[in-house]
Design brief:
Strand content of chain A: under 5%
Largest sheet of chain A: none
Structural class of chain B: mainly alpha
Radius of gyration of chain B: 21 Å
Structural class of chain A: mainly alpha
Largest interface: A-B, 109 and 97 residues
Distance between the termini of chain B: 32 Å
Distance between the termini of chain A: 48 Å
Number of helices of chain A: 24
Helix content of chain A: over 70%
Strand order of the largest sheet of chain B: 1-2
Helix content of chain B: 55-70%
Oligomer: heterodimer
Shape of chain B: elongated
Order of helices and strands of chain A: HHHHHHHHHHHHHHHHHHHHHHHH
Chain lengths: 499, 199
C-alpha cells in the first residue's frame, strides 16, 4: 500500500460539502444506519445470551462496541456499556450490579492516576506564561547555524517542552505559531516547516511528564515512576532521529532550507540572557526526573512540586493579577481535561472486567505463544496493527482498548510491560501524524490558515501530510531500534527500582 | 504524490481537536440565573479539588523533608477525595466543554441530516449508560454511608465521596438533556459547533 495511494483517495467529501448544505439532507440515510445498528446490536446481545463459547461472546461484543464508536458514541460510553452487557451475559445479574455500582468509582480512584491533574495543570500554567517563545528563541541562538537549523531548533524546543508538558497537541500549537512563520521567512520549504513542528509535538508523550504513559501504567498496573523513566531514552533517540531526518533532507535538497548567509555576529550577552529566561524548563525537568530517579518523590509528588514551580514562574512572569487569572482558568480546564481522560479510563476498566471473564485475551496470548513468533516478529505484527488502528482512533482510546488484549500476549513473548508501554505510546504518536485522520496534521493545517503563520504562502493539507510523512519513517525507525535494543526503555527504570 | 486532497469540510478537523489541547481561554463568568448556581458551585468544587491536591501534596513533601514527619493519610485523601472529586465533576465538565473523546471519522462524512440522527442515537446510548451508573451508584453511596466506609490505617472516610459519582453523573445527564433539547429544536447540529471555543 503506497502512501500516495492513501493520500490520493478523497479523504473528505461529504455530500454537504458542495454548496449550501440542507440540514435535513440524509436524515433517511441516518435513520437507516441507526436502525440497522440497533437491529444488529439486538441480535448481537441475544447471541451473547445464548450458549456460545465465552470467547465468541467476547468477539461479538467487541464488534458491537466498535460499531457504537463508529457512530460517534463517546468512547467511554461504548466501552463501559459493552462491559456491562458482557458481564451480564457471562456472569449474570449480581456481578453486573456490582460492576455498575463499584466500577466507575474504583476505576477513577486509582492512586497512579493522581499524577494526571498535576501534569495537566503544570502544562497549562507554563503555556500561559509564554515559555514556548523563550525556549524557541534560546534554541535558535544555539542551533541556527546548523543545516536546517531552524527545523532542528523546532525539534529541540519540542523535546524541551516535552519535559514540561504532556500534551502533544499543546506543543504543536505553541511551536507551530512561532516556528512555522520563522522557517518560512528564512525560505524553508513548507513541507519541512510543518513537518518539523508536528514531529516536535510527538516527542512530548515520551519524555516525562507524559499523560499517556501514566494512563498506561495505571491501566497495566505497572509502577508509574519507572514507566515514566522508560520513556526518556526513547524520547531522546526520537529527537535525534528527527534531527538526522532534517539534516538528511537538507543535504539532499539544499533549497528546502537555505543557509543563513547574513553572518550576523552572535551577541553572547543576548544569547545567555535569552537562555536564562528558560529556567523553569530545566528546573522542572530536573525535579521531576531527578526526584523520581533518586526516590525523593513519587510521581504525584514530582508533578505537584513541578506544578508549584510553574506557578511561581507564572507569578514572576505575569504578575500576581494575571497569574491568578491564569491559575484559575488552568484549574477549570484541568478539571474538564482530566474528566475527559478518566471517562475513557472508566469505560476501559469496565470493559476489561468483561474481557477478563470472556478469556479473549487469554485466547490471544495462547495463539501468540503457539505461533512461536520471535519478539521482533511480534513487534513487527503489532506495529502494522497499530498503524492501521491509528488511522481511525484517538491514541488514548487505542491504547486503553488494546492493552488488556495485547499486553498478556506481549509478556508471553518475553516483552516487558514497561517496554510495551513506551511502544504503544510511540505508536499512538505516529498514528496522529499519519493520514487519513492524522489529528496533528489537521491541527497544523489549521494553524497555517492564518496569514501571520503562512506569510502568504499557500499551504495545503496535502503539503502538511507530506511534511508529516517526512518524519514518520524516523519514528518507525525508533520503534525498530527499540525492538533491537529493548534496554533503551528498560535500562533507566531498572536503575530506579534497584534503589 | 502529485494528487491533491480536497480540503476538509469545515468543522471536521476542529471536531477532532479536544479543548484540553487548545490554548486556555475560558472566561470565568458568573452565573446570571438561579438555576446556574448549583452548576457553578460544582465547578468551583472541582477547581478547589485540583488546588487542594496541589497544595496538600506539596505540604506533604515539605513536611517530610523539613520536619521528617509525613502528614497522615495524604495518599488516601489525594486518591479518594481530590481525584474522586476531579474525576466525577470532570466527567460533567468534559461534556460541557466538549472534551469527551469520540471517533467521528465515519460520521463526519455523512450528510448533515444523517449526522443529526447519529448524534441523537449517541445521546440516547450515553443517557442509558449514565442512567444505569446513576441508579446503582446512588445505592452504593447510601450503602457505604451506612457502613461508614473508610480506608487505610488512618481510617480516612471514603463514603462521602461515593456521593460525588451520582452528583457528577446526574449533572452530566441534565446537561445532556439540555443539549439534546436544543439540537432537536434546531433540527441541526450548529449549536454544537458554537461550543467549540475559537482558538
Amino acid at each position: 500500500m503506497s502512501l500516495s495511494e492513501q493520500l490520493s483517495t478523497p479523504s473528505t467529501a461529504p455530500a454537504g460539502g458542495q454548496g449550501p448544505a440542507d440540514p435535513k439532507a440524509g436524515r433517511r440515510q441516518g435513520y437507516l444506519i441507526v436502525a440497522g445498528t440497533v437491529v444488529a446490536a439486538v441480535l448481537m446481545v441475544l447471541a451473547a445470551q445464548s450458549d456460545l463459547p465465552r470467547e465468541a461472546v467476547g468477539g461479538i461484543l467487541l464488534v458491537l462496541m466498535l460499531g457504537l464508536m463508529a457512530l460517534n458514541v463517546p468512547v467511554g460510553v461504548a466501552m463501559g456499556l459493552t462491559g456491562v452487557i458482557g458481564v451480564l451475559s457471562l456472569a449474570g445479574e449480581r456481578p453486573t450490579i456490582g460492576l455498575l455500582a463499584e466500577g466507575p468509582f474504583a476505576a477513577a480512584t486509582n492512586f497512579s492516576l493522581t499524577v494526571i491533574p498535576m501534569f495537566v495543570f503544570m502544562g497549562l500554567i507554563l503555556w500561559r506564561s509564554g515559555v514556548t517563545a523563550d525556549l524557541y528563541t534560546a534554541a535558535k541562538h544555539w542551533l541556527s547555524w546548523l543545516p536546517g537549523g531552524l527545523a532542528i531548533t523546532t525539534n529541540l524546543a519540542g523535546a524541551g517542552l516535552g519535559a514540561a508538558s504532556g500534551s502533544t497537541i499543546g506543543i504543536t500549537y505553541a511551536l507551530g505559531r512561532i516556528g512555522i512563520p520563522e522557517m518560512l521567512k528564512a525560505g524553508y520549504d513548507k513541507r519541512l516547516a510543518t513537518g518539523a513542528v508536528m514531529s516536535s509535538g510527538t516527542i512530548g508523550q515520551l519524555i516525562p511528564p507524559s499523560i499517556l504513559l501514566v494512563l498506561f501504567a495505571g491501566f497495566a498496573e505497572v509502577p508509574v515512576g519507572p514507566q515514566l523513566m522508560a520513556g526518556i531514552v526513547p524520547g531522546i533517540v526520537l529527537t535525534l532521529m528527527y534531527i538526522v531526518i532534517v539534516v538528511g533532507t537538507v543535504s539532499l535538497k539544499p533549497h528546502w532550507a537555505p543557509r543563513d548567509t547574513s553572518k550576523t555576529q552572535l551577541d553572547w550577552g543576548v544569547v545567555w540572557k535569552d537562555s536564562a529566561k528558560c529556567w523553569p524548563i530545566p528546573v522542572i525537568a530536573f525535579m521531576i526526573i531527578g526526584g523520581m530517579m533518586s526516590g525523593w518523590f513519587t510521581a504525584t509528588e514530582a508533578g505537584a512540586v513541578g506544578a508549584m514551580t510553574a506557578l511561581v514562574f507564572a507569578l514572576f512572569r505575569l504578575g500576581p493579577r494575571e497569574a491568578l487569572r491564569s491559575g484559575l482558568t488552568a484549574l477549570k480546564d484541568t478539571v474538564a481535561s482530566v474528566g475527559g481522560i478518566l471517562f475513557v479510563m472508566i469505560g476501559a476498566t469496565m470493559l476489561n472486567r468483561f474481557l477478563a471473564l470472556s478469556g479473549t485475551a487469554q485466547l490471544f496470548s495462547d495463539a501468540v505463544i503457539a505461533a512461536g513468533l520471535p519478539m521482533l516478529g511480534l513487534v513487527a505484527v503489532l506495529t502494522v496493527f497499530y498503524l492501521v488502528l491509528g488511522m481511525f482512533m484517538d491514541p488514548i482510546a487505542m491504547m486503553l482498548l488494546t492493552v488488556p488484549i495485547l499486553l498478556p500476549a506481549a509478556t508471553a513473548a518475553g516483552i516487558s510491560p514497561v517496554w510495551f508501554g513506551v511502544f504503544v505510546v510511540l505508536m499512538g504518536e505516529i498514528a496522529i501524524l499519519s493520514p487519513p485522520v492524522g489529528m496533528l496534521a489537521f491541527i497544523t493545517h489549521k494553524i497555517t490558515r492564518t496569514r501571520e503563520v503562512n506569510l502568504g504562502h499557500d499551504i495545503t493539507l496535502m503539503d502538511v501530510f507530506k511534511g508529516a510523512l517526512l518524519f514518520v519513517p524516523g519514528a518507525l525507525a525508533v520503534v525498530f531500534i527499540m525492538a533491537l535494543f529493548p534496554e533503551l526503555a528498560t535500562w533507566l527504570p531498572g536503575l530506579t527500582s534497584s534503589q | 504524490m502529485s494528487t491533491t486532497t480536497p480540503e476538509p469540510s469545515s468543522g471536521y478537523p476542529e471536531a477532532l481537536v479536544r479543548k484540553r489541547d487548545r490554548p486556555p481561554g475560558v472566561n470565568l463568568k458568573n452565573p446570571t440565573r438561579w438555576w446556574q448556581w448549583p452548576g457553578q458551585v460544582l465547578t468551583w468544587l472541582g477547581m478547589a479539588a485540583v488546588a487542594a491536591m496541589l497544595f496538600h501534596v506539596v505540604a506533604e513533601v515539605a513536611a517530610r523533608g523539613a520536619l521528617n514527619s509525613p502528614l497522615t493519610g495524604t495518599l488516601e485523601i489525594t486518591t479518594y477525595w481530590y481525584l474522586g472529586g476531579i474525576a466525577f465533576i470532570g466527567l460533567w465538565q468534559a461534556f460541557v466543554h466538549n472534551e469527551h473523546i469520540s471517533v467521528d471519522l465515519a460520521t463526519a462524512r455523512l450528510q448533515p441530516g444523517a449526522q443529526w440522527v447519529a448524534y441523537l442515537f449517541g445521546a440516547v446510548i450515553t443517557f442509558i449508560f449514565l442512567a444505569l451508573v446513576l441508579w446503582f451508584s446512588v445505592e452504593a453511596a447510601f450503602e457505604a454511608m451506612d457502613k461508614g466506609e473508610y480506608i487505610g490505617a488512618d481510617r480516612v472516610p471514603v463514603w462521602p465521596m461515593r456521593f460525588v459519582v451520582p452528583l457528577g453523573v446526574g449533572a452530566f445527564m441534565l446537561s445532556l438533556i439540555a443539549q439534546v433539547t436544543r439540537v432537536v429544536r434546531d433540527g441541526n447540529l450548529t449549536s454544537l459547533e458554537d461550543h467549540h471555543e475559537p482558538v
